[in-house]
Amino acid sequence: MATRILLVTSSILGEHGQSNALANHLRERAAGRDELAITHRDLAVDSLPHLGLEELSSWQVAADERSAEQQVLAQRSDDLIDELQAHDVLVLAVPMYNFGIPSQLKAWFDRVMRAGTTFRYTEQGPVGLVKGKRAVILAARGGQYAGTENDTQTPHLKAMLGMIGITDVSTIYAEGLAMGDGLRNAALKEARQAIDSLVERL
Questions:
Q1: What digits encode the pLDDT tens for the residues 130-139?
Q2: pLDDT (tens digit per residue) in 144-201
Q3: Nearest residue to 82 (alpha-carbon basis) of 26, 50, 41, 47
Q4: Helix crossing, 18-31 with 181-201: angle to 10°?
Q5: Is CB count within 10 Å lower at the N or C end of the chain?
């Protein structure tokens, strides 16, 4: 059976986004392999609204007791969680915006991180309910932040993934992309090579 990959992109720059370029490189490398199947969700094209109280409240109502409006609101989260659960590997192609993740990606996490569905609270702390999956972060950044206190993005992503049970997380960085052509080209080359190795191992 094919390894199912859910590729989530969130760059607002479209074809000019470097995180999208990394995602496209992965798609191209995986295209000729029958044992890999990729589903692509572009959160910049099919954007989600910010999570509001009415949508959040719809999750607290039993499915057979929801109003028509609540059913529509809850279905948005249900569909995203079902999609995540149906795949083996989650790949997040993530640009850095103001030291954080795009709001489009945050809106996705706000709907897949759902108490009682993808994690639950216990006396020993939260327990993730999304089992048997791994995640890969393709991180594209204008500056160089990995391993520094300014890289608040990587811990944030790992914390959210860990909360729902995905603790096998690796990161491929392409950094310094706005720091001159030499550094940019070298970083992208190294990232593409790392993606090639990743695809071979999947």
A1: 999 999 999 9
A2: 999 999 999 999 999 999 999 999 999 999 999 999 999 999 999 999 999 999 998 8
A3: 41
A4: 30
A5: N
Closest CA to 91 of 159, 157, 46: 157
DSSP label of 47 = P
Give residue for tokens 């989530």.
Answer: 8
Whether 174 contacts 188, CB under 8 Å:
yes
Q: Extract the annotated binding site for FMN.
A: 11, 96-99
State which CATH number among 3.30.450.40, 3.30.565.10, 3.40.50.360, 3.20.20.140 fits the domain covering 3-201: 3.40.50.360
Rg value, the chain, Cα: 18
Query: What mean pLDDT do residues 45-74 have?
Result: 95
Contacts of 150 by beta carbon, 8 Å cutoff, 6+ apart:
99
Domain limits, the chain: 3-201
Annotated binding residues, as ranges?
A: 11, 96-99
CA distance 195 to 25: 8
Strands (E), the chain: 3-9, 36-42, 89-95, 119-122, 125-128, 134-140, 168-174
